[in-house]
Write a structure and sequence with these properties.
The chain is α/β, with parallel strands linked by helices. It has one domain: Rhodanese-like domain (Oxidized Rhodanese, domain 1, 3-Layer(aba) Sandwich). It contains 7 helices and 5 strands. It has helices at residues 2-12, 20-26, 40-46, 60-63, 74-77, 89-100, 112-118; strands at 16-18, 32-36, 53-54, 80-84, 106-109. The chain has a 5-stranded parallel sheet. The longest helix is centred in the C-terminal third of the chain and has 12 residues, at 89-100.
Length: 129
């Protein structure tokens, strides 16, 4: 576990991390896509950021590349991407992966959905949009 956390810290130093308050400001901009990396049961239990796209962490490698049969068009139409998970660890890995796959203007929310909610960010029920 110590090695994993050390690696996570190293990756974290190489990506863009934003605070929840900044994420709330970005949420008001239409050219920014929020990407929820959590599993479906987490979305059902805790909701998601309104308008966020759902892409489980394990699916990124298939959904980002344009030539993939599983490509999601929002990965080629948005100007900026904000990844988040429950506490911010999966989103660190996802941001790194997305950058390695060629996605630009990618960041993640420090502390994830938990920090978003603590900062007063809006939440929607999964499937209600």
């Amino acid at each position: 576990m110590a090695e994993f956390l050390k690696n996570l810290q190293k990756i974290s130093e190489q990506i863009v991390t934003i605070e929840p308050v900044e994420a709330i400001e970005l949420h008001r901009k239409s050219e920014v896509c929020f990407v929820d990396l959590r599993d479906g049961f987490e979305l059902l239990e805790h909701g998601l950021i309104p308008g966020a796209e759902h892409c489980p962490r394990g699916s990124l490698e298939f959904r980002i590349p344009v030539k993939s049969e599983f490509h999601q068009t929002y990965f080629s139409t948005c100007d900026r991407f904000v990844f988040y998970c429950s506490h911010g660890q999966r989103s660190i890995l996802a941001t790194d992966t997305a950058m390695k796959l060629g996605l630009e203007n990618v960041c993640h929310i420090r502390g994830g959905m938990k920090a978003w909610l603590a900062a007063g960010g809006p939440v929607a029920r999964y499937g209600s949009e």
